[in-house]
């Protein structure tokens, strides 16, 4: 067998037990939507073939390596044990626990982020849960109505993965927050990566300014109706969120309608 083909076969076979949670979430959402189309008869299901190839993320191993024989998580079969250990020991700050925030928390809990000795997840959201939230914010149930979103999200994450260390806050992030839980000490030592799940530009710009000032990486995401956006900000390697200008916001969010 050709050496290159042998390498590809080896990579394929060793990643069969893998679980790549973000991709599972995407394909699960697509499949669910197609099932709803077929059952309801309102729209025609997509009749196409989709292949997503991202073998560049695979951890290259020598043939005599046994790194993955001792793995404890499905993600290690793809990214390698060392990368997974770094993920488990990351200090993640999830800002907002609405529709996107719930999805982010579900994914990082399933990926075992925040389970390491020095890792944790901090989540903040000053809003409380309303009945209308239940249709799109997957971590919440009827019994959670009236609770703070961050507290209910913390409880849901612990049900999914009790090993995740989560700390919730109900504080607003903004210029007036000079003290409290998100002081200078928090920004310097309490967080490695910020995951934005915000619904307004003012808060996004504030978080972007903090990331630039403290040289922290940030992933910003947002939705508007059927549209979505995501931006990865890496210090000294990419532009910041504030480097470009978003179009004017609609008076009433489509998701609310």
Automatic annotation (TrEMBL):
InterPro entries: ThiF/MoeB/HesA, ThiF_NAD_FAD-bd, Ubiquitin-activating_enz. One of its GO terms (biological process) is DNA damage response. It holds the Pfam family ThiF. GO terms for cellular component: cytoplasm; nucleus. Signal peptide: none annotated. Residues 79-256 form the THIF-type NAD/FAD binding fold domain. GO terms for molecular function: ubiquitin activating enzyme activity. This is THIF-type NAD/FAD binding fold domain-containing protein. It comes from Fragilariopsis cylindrus CCMP1102.
């Amino acid at each position: 067998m050709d050496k290159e083909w042998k390498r590809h076969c080896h990579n394929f076979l060793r990643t069969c037990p893998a679980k790549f949670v973000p991709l599972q979430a995407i394909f699960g959402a697509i499949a669910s939507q197609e099932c709803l189309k077929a059952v309801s008869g309102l729209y025609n299901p997509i009749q196409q073939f989709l292949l997503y190839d991202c073998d560049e993320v695979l951890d290259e191993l020598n043939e005599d390596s046994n790194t993955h024989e001792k793995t404890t998580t499905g993600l290690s079969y793809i990214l390698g044990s060392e990368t997974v250990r770094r993920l488990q020991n990351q200090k993640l700050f999830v800002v907002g626990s609405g529709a996107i925030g719930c999805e982010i928390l579900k994914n990082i809990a399933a990926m075992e982020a925040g389970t390491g000795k020095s890792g944790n997840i901090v989540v903040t959201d000053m809003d409380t849960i309303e009945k209308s939230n239940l249709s799109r914010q997957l971590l919440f149930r009827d019994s959670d109505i009236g609770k703070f979103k961050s507290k209910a999200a913390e409880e849901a994450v612990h049900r999914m993965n009790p090993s995740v260390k989560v700390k919730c806050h109900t504080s607003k992030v903004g210029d007036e927050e000079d003290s409290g839980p998100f002081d200078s000490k928090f920004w310097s030592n309490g967080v490695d990566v910020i995951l934005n799940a915000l619904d307004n530009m003012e808060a996004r710009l504030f978080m972007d300014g903090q990331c630039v000032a403290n040289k922290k990486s940030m992933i910003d995401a947002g939705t508007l109706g059927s549209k979505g956006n995501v931006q990865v900000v890496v210090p000294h390697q990419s532009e910041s969120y504030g480097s470009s200008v978003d179009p004017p916001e609609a008076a009433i969010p489509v998701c609310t309608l």
